[in-house]
Design brief:
Radius of gyration: 20 Å
Helix content: over 70%
Strand content: under 5%
Shape: globular
Length: about 325
């Protein structure tokens, strides 16, 4: 079953969220509007709005309030992607030219800032100070995670804990915040809010690990960009860290990283093949599964509703996804 089928009963609300995002990013300046709309049209899984909607079901579900949170979280995610593409010098995202590729880095940075500012302006409609505090803290952590990723580029001598700390800040905490603030907007009981936050965190950790595995195992058609892009950028993801336990592999990668400007897709292939043929993928997936098991345990603290079952199906789908 495809992911959208799992939460198909939310389609009407998700369509309204999509319409709201289109309205919000409209700008008086044509370049800002074109750059923002391009990213929106590139699509995406919209998984954060889904988590917001589902979390809102555990309180008093009023769509205008829930929608405010869902739109804000997705736009913040989109803004971070625009900035990511500048940092990574990425030409493609979801198979389409990035904002920085179609215009330039300066336009991309301002387009990201614009989307970010519009999202925060929209959230001001929600009169819940705690939601704003949590989101502000989340953005701070997100920025620290990005800076840590820059610092750790081409650094082979790092621990798995460094990687886990990094993806917590880069990915998991925003998904956790989506679940938590969705619960806050609906006035869900505090015990549910906490369980949903932890569920989002564990699912987010699993989601990023799977993403990092797919960067080696999925096809270019599925990824919308060439495989091995993380390693090409010098990002040591979990499969690469496990593969580096092999001395010969580590020495060759260390040598390649000494001259990163000479590294290209062709030279990257032996490293990708080694990672795919070793146990690095299997071990990475096992850690992803551990996070999913913890996510399931958090769901047991929620009432047995259709929405809880949907959250469980989404987590299960994330663990098995191939693109």
């Amino acid at each position: 079953m495809k992911l959208p089928m799992i939460y198909s009963y939310l389609k009407k609300d998700l369509d309204k969220i999509e319409d709201a995002m289109t309205d919000i990013i409209r700008a008086e300046h044509p370049v800002l509007e074109d750059a923002s709309v391009q990213l929106l049209r590139a699509g995406g899984k919209r998984i954060r709005p889904v988590f917001v909607l589902l979390s809102g079901k555990f309180g008093t579900y009023e769509l205008p309030r829930i929608q405010t949170v869902a739109v804000t979280l997705e736009l913040i995610h989109m803004a971070s992607l625009v900035h990511d593409d500048v940092i990574d010098d990425a030409e493609l995202r979801r198979g389409k030219p990035t904002v920085k590729a179609k215009w330039d880095n300066k336009v991309a940075m301002y387009a990201g800032d614009y989307i970010f500012a519009r999202s925060l302006e929209y959230l001001s409609n929600l009169k819940e100070p705690r939601a704003h505090q949590i989101l502000a803290h989340t953005i701070v952590e997100l920025c620290i995670g990005e800076v840590e990723q820059i610092r750790d580029k081409y650094r082979i001598e790092q621990h798995v804990k460094d990687y886990l700390r990094r993806i917590r800040r880069k990915t998991a905490i925003l998904i956790a915040a989506s679940s938590r603030i969705g619960a806050i907007a609906s006035g869900a009981p505090l015990a549910y809010e906490r369980a949903l936050y932890r569920y989002g965190y564990y699912v987010g950790m699993s989601y990023q690990i799977i993403d990092d595995v797919l960067d080696f195992t999925a096809s270019e058609a599925d990824l919308g960009k060439p495989a091995g892009g993380d390693l090409l950028q010098g990002n040591m993801t979990l499969p690469a860290l496990f593969a580096c336990e092999d001395d010969a592999f580590r020495e060759k990668l260390t040598e390649a990283f000494r001259n990163p400007e000479q590294l290209n897709q062709e030279k990257l292939q032996p490293f990708i093949q080694h990672i795919k043929s070793s146990d690095a993928i299997k071990r990475s997936l096992a850690i992803s599964d551990r996070y999913l098991q913890k996510a399931y345990q958090e769901l047991d603290k929620l009432p047995p509703t259709r929405d809880r079952n949907t959250l469980k199906q989404i987590a299960r789908h994330i663990g098995k996804r191939s693109s």
